[in-house]
Amino acid sequence: MTLKDKIDLDKLPNHIAIIMDGNGRWAKEKGKNRIFGHSNGVQSVREVSEACAELGVKCLTLYAFSTENWNRPKLEVTALMELLVQTIRKETKTLMKNDIRLKAIGNLSSLPPRCYNELMESIEITKDNKRLDLVLALSYSGRDELLQACKKIATEVQNGQLKTEEITEDLIQKNLYTHDIPDPELLIRTSGEHRVSNFLLWQIAYAEFYFTEKYWPEFRKEDLYESIINFQNRERRFGKTSEQLSVGPSK
Ligand code: IPE
Ligand code: IPE
Ligand code: MG
């Protein structure tokens, strides 16, 4: 029995989010520069997207660049943006072939225009694809996302379009970048780091976390299968007791 066969296809997470970390350390161990690590991370993105599409996972969000990453050396930031342009340009055909729809979340207007335009073009080309939503988090900050939502809602209250009593969790959700994306059930972080780094702060309220020592450029389909099997062996209680869950709903 292969790892893939051990996955229960009826209990797949609908949405998997990944903090793709460890490109720099992976490259350093090989005596190469950090950019080499980022370039090699692209193969892992291909593998994981293909694996999700094949299994029937409906949504995959990849943390590709945080707002804090703008503070890295200029050379690295430029290289990452260029890699993004080249990758999107090259991979759009594959997205079409695999019926994958590209989406993006984050402060997209802060991306260099070349990058922004390439991204928008691919989003437009792939917009009718149905098998998998591939969401890139770019210039993304969870706190910033919540701040923007607060400002939008406050403006509506100020203009008299909304009453304070009408502010609900649902309304907040509707004002996030992820308004049309379900919350992730499984959050994976590679490279042995155990932190969230400002990723999807609102959306991960009940996500299951999975950490692996593997650096992102080494992450392959088998590693994704392992994380899903691990997820499927957990009991998600949402505040209830184990006994309540085994009895069934409304007890
Ligand atoms: C993740 O790898 C990629 C980005 C954050 C863009 P890192 O570049 O953070 O690699 P490490 O963590 O330094 O090894
Ligand atoms: C988080 O990784 C951001 C991305 C994976 C894009 P970092 O490497 O930037 O996170 P920290 O700084 O180690 O927390
Ligand atoms: Mg890192």
Report on this structure.
By secondary structure, the protein is α/β, with parallel strands linked by helices. A 6-stranded parallel sheet has the order 3-4-2-1-5-6, with helices on both faces. The two termini are 38 Å apart. Helix 1 (23-29) packs across helix 2. Helix content is 43%, strand content 14%. Helix 4 links the parallel strand 3 and strand 4. It has one domain (12-134, 143-230): Undecaprenyl pyrophosphate synthetase (3-Layer(aba) Sandwich), CATH 3.40.1180.10. It has 8 helices and 6 strands. The chain has helices spanning 23-29, 34-55, 74-97, 113-125, 142-158, 169-174, 221-232, 242-247; strands spanning 15-19, 59-66, 100-105, 132-140, 186-189, 208-211. The mean pLDDT is 97. The chain is globular. Bound molecules: 3-methylbut-3-enyl trihydrogen diphosphate (2 copies) and magnesium ion. One 3-methylbut-3-enyl trihydrogen diphosphate binds at residues 20-25, 65, 69, 80, 191, 216. The site of one 3-methylbut-3-enyl trihydrogen diphosphate has 11 residues, from strand 2.
Question: Radius of gyration over alpha carbons?
Answer: 19 Å
Helical segment count: 8
Structural class label: alpha/beta
So what's the oligomer here? single chain
Count of folded domains: 1
Strand composition percent:
5-15%
CATH architecture: 3-Layer(aba) Sandwich
Name the poorly predicted regions. Answer: none
Strand order of the largest sheet: 3-4-2-1-5-6
